Amino acid sequence: MNYYQQAFKFILDFWQLWLILFVIIVLRLFFDWFDFKIDNWHIRRRFAKGEKWRSDRELIQWLRGMKPIEFEKYIADLFRRLGYKTEAVGGSHDEGIDVIAEKDGVKHYIQCKKYFSKHQVGSPEIREFYGALAAHFGNGEGWFITTNKFTPEAEKFAEDKPIVLINQFKLVEYIHLADKRKLNDESRKEIDLRCPKCGGILVERDGKFGKFFGCSNYPNCKFTKKI
Asked: Angle at Cα 109 formed by Cα 103 and Cα 112, nearest 5°?
């Protein structure tokens, strides 16, 4: 019996063990995915509650009060709402990149800096960020986001480089833009559910051939739409 036959026989003899291991791996992946979804839901709910009814000044103070890892997750969530696919990768070995934001196949690399005080981000920090981007540059840009301001030297250094500096005021603009985008999406959904014939609301119904949208003004309006 050669090596391959022995290996095949070993696999067959212990197929129950391989099946158990396979089931364990699948369950582990499922629960990791489920925990990720639940964690994102809690994060979005907490962030939405924090943004609500705050003035711009209060919003900045709220952001400054976050822990660094919370701020990184907030930025990832913010750009996700702006239409990017994001991943928070910050940590002790992040190599200067805290969040990756991808859109239309182009990746952008973000560094997040939040400060309690009125500390301004200087050129040394931007130089360090630029060095961290060296291994990542493609068609995208590097975005340095802070809850404070940048010094004139930092702005001068970034002028001719693929680096976008986002200070506290620009960050608040992005937050308002994300909220406006959400409202527009909800408005489009409402418009999509309007009956094109009479302007009524399309409601989900059960039919002989499955579910469909029917006009709320039935029987006066008999418009239907497949789901």
From this structure: 120
> In 10 A of CB 184, how many CB atoms?
10
Among 27, 45, 63, the domain boundary falls at 45
The total number of structural domains that make up the chain: 3
Residue 138 three-state SS: coil
Q: How far apart are CA 71 and CA 91, in angstroms?
A: 12
- Helices then strands, each counted (H, E), the chain: 7, 10
User: Alpha-carbon torsion 65, 70, 76, 77, what sign?
Assistant: negative
The position carrying tokens 């409601």 is 203
DSSP structural state of residue 139 = S
pLDDT digits (tens, 9 = 90+) for 127-168: 999 998 887 766 788 999 999 999 999 999 999 999 999 999
DSSP 65-124: TS-HHHHHHHHHHHHHHTT-EEEE--STT-TT--EEEEETTEEEEEEEE--SS-PEE-HH
- Burial class of residue 212 (count of CB atoms within 10 Å of its CB; 0-12, 13-18, 19+): middle
pLDDT, residue 147, reads: 94
Range of the domain at 67: 55-182
The answer to the question of residue 82 being in a domain is yes
